[in-house]
Design brief:
The chain is α+β, with helices and mostly antiparallel strands. It contains three helices and five strands, in the order E-H-E-E-H-E-E-H. Helix 2 runs antiparallel to helix 3. InterPro entries: EACC1.
Length: about 120
Protein backbone atom coordinates (compact mmCIF):
# COMPACT_ATOMS: atom_id res chain seq x y z
CA UNK A 1 0.00 0.00 0.00
CA UNK A 2 1.38 3.41 -0.95
CA UNK A 3 1.43 6.21 1.61
CA UNK A 4 1.00 9.89 0.81
CA UNK A 5 2.17 12.75 2.95
CA UNK A 6 2.11 16.47 2.36
CA UNK A 7 5.01 18.85 2.89
CA UNK A 8 4.42 22.57 3.41
CA UNK A 9 7.75 24.40 2.90
CA UNK A 10 8.01 28.06 3.80
CA UNK A 11 8.23 29.51 0.29
CA UNK A 12 8.37 28.93 -3.46
CA UNK A 13 12.15 28.70 -3.72
CA UNK A 14 12.17 26.12 -0.93
CA UNK A 15 9.45 24.21 -2.76
CA UNK A 16 11.65 23.95 -5.86
CA UNK A 17 14.67 22.90 -3.83
CA UNK A 18 12.81 20.25 -1.86
CA UNK A 19 11.01 18.86 -4.92
CA UNK A 20 14.33 18.46 -6.73
CA UNK A 21 15.98 16.93 -3.64
CA UNK A 22 13.28 14.32 -2.97
CA UNK A 23 12.31 13.58 -6.57
CA UNK A 24 15.29 11.39 -7.40
CA UNK A 25 14.50 8.47 -5.09
CA UNK A 26 13.07 5.22 -6.53
CA UNK A 27 9.52 4.53 -5.35
CA UNK A 28 8.99 8.18 -4.35
CA UNK A 29 6.76 10.44 -6.46
CA UNK A 30 6.74 14.16 -5.67
CA UNK A 31 4.01 16.40 -7.10
CA UNK A 32 3.55 20.13 -6.63
CA UNK A 33 -0.02 21.01 -5.70
CA UNK A 34 -1.07 24.50 -6.70
CA UNK A 35 -3.44 26.72 -4.77
CA UNK A 36 -6.47 27.85 -6.79
CA UNK A 37 -5.61 31.25 -8.32
CA UNK A 38 -6.99 34.39 -6.74
CA UNK A 39 -9.24 36.54 -8.94
CA UNK A 40 -7.18 38.96 -11.05
CA UNK A 41 -3.90 37.29 -10.04
CA UNK A 42 -1.03 36.57 -12.37
CA UNK A 43 0.22 33.01 -12.33
CA UNK A 44 -0.25 30.28 -9.78
CA UNK A 45 1.00 29.84 -6.24
CA UNK A 46 2.24 26.48 -5.01
CA UNK A 47 0.52 25.27 -1.87
CA UNK A 48 2.35 22.06 -0.90
CA UNK A 49 4.24 19.01 -2.14
CA UNK A 50 2.35 15.72 -2.27
CA UNK A 51 4.82 12.88 -1.70
CA UNK A 52 3.63 9.35 -2.52
CA UNK A 53 5.86 6.51 -1.37
CA UNK A 54 5.70 2.84 -2.23
CA UNK A 55 5.48 0.57 0.82
CA UNK A 56 8.59 -0.19 2.82
CA UNK A 57 11.97 1.27 1.94
CA UNK A 58 10.89 4.24 -0.20
CA UNK A 59 8.95 5.73 2.72
CA UNK A 60 11.98 5.64 4.99
CA UNK A 61 14.22 6.95 2.19
CA UNK A 62 11.87 9.88 1.56
CA UNK A 63 11.71 10.86 5.24
CA UNK A 64 15.50 10.52 5.59
CA UNK A 65 15.98 12.73 2.51
CA UNK A 66 13.61 15.25 4.08
CA UNK A 67 15.62 15.12 7.32
CA UNK A 68 18.87 15.85 5.46
CA UNK A 69 17.24 18.70 3.54
CA UNK A 70 15.85 20.28 6.73
CA UNK A 71 19.28 20.03 8.36
CA UNK A 72 20.80 22.02 5.50
CA UNK A 73 18.12 24.74 5.69
CA UNK A 74 17.23 27.43 8.19
CA UNK A 75 13.53 26.82 7.93
CA UNK A 76 10.52 25.17 9.48
CA UNK A 77 8.15 22.98 7.51
CA UNK A 78 4.85 21.27 8.20
CA UNK A 79 3.89 17.72 7.21
CA UNK A 80 0.55 15.96 7.03
CA UNK A 81 0.33 12.18 7.24
CA UNK A 82 -3.25 10.96 7.26
CA UNK A 83 -5.04 13.39 9.54
CA UNK A 84 -1.99 14.21 11.69
CA UNK A 85 -0.03 17.40 11.16
CA UNK A 86 3.60 17.80 12.29
CA UNK A 87 5.77 20.92 12.56
CA UNK A 88 9.42 20.12 11.86
CA UNK A 89 12.38 22.39 12.64
CA UNK A 90 16.11 21.85 12.51
CA UNK A 91 16.06 21.38 16.30
CA UNK A 92 13.34 18.70 16.49
CA UNK A 93 13.66 17.04 13.09
CA UNK A 94 15.05 13.70 14.25
CA UNK A 95 12.37 13.05 16.89
CA UNK A 96 9.43 14.37 14.88
CA UNK A 97 10.41 12.53 11.70
CA UNK A 98 10.51 9.26 13.68
CA UNK A 99 6.85 9.98 14.59
CA UNK A 100 6.12 10.69 10.91
CA UNK A 101 7.55 7.30 9.89
CA UNK A 102 5.57 5.50 12.61
CA UNK A 103 2.33 7.23 11.60
CA UNK A 104 2.92 6.43 7.92
CA UNK A 105 3.67 2.79 8.76
CA UNK A 106 0.38 2.56 10.65
CA UNK A 107 -1.38 3.82 7.52
CA UNK A 108 0.59 1.35 5.38
CA UNK A 109 -0.54 -1.49 7.61
CA UNK A 110 -4.15 -0.44 7.07
CA UNK A 111 -4.74 0.73 10.61
CA UNK A 112 -6.76 3.66 9.28
CA UNK A 113 -6.15 7.31 9.93
CA UNK A 114 -3.84 8.03 12.84
CA UNK A 115 -5.86 10.30 15.09
CA UNK A 116 -5.12 13.75 16.42
CA UNK A 117 -2.98 16.67 15.49
CA UNK A 118 0.57 16.99 16.71
CA UNK A 119 1.82 20.51 17.27
CA UNK A 120 5.46 19.49 17.81
CA UNK A 121 7.68 22.51 18.21
Amino acid sequence: MAVEFRVFPGGGSQMDSLRDWMGGHPGVEVTVVERPPEPNSQGTVWDFLAVVCAAGGPLVAAVQALHLWIGAQTTDIELEVGDRRFKVTGRNAEAVLREVIETARQLEAGQGEAGGTDESA
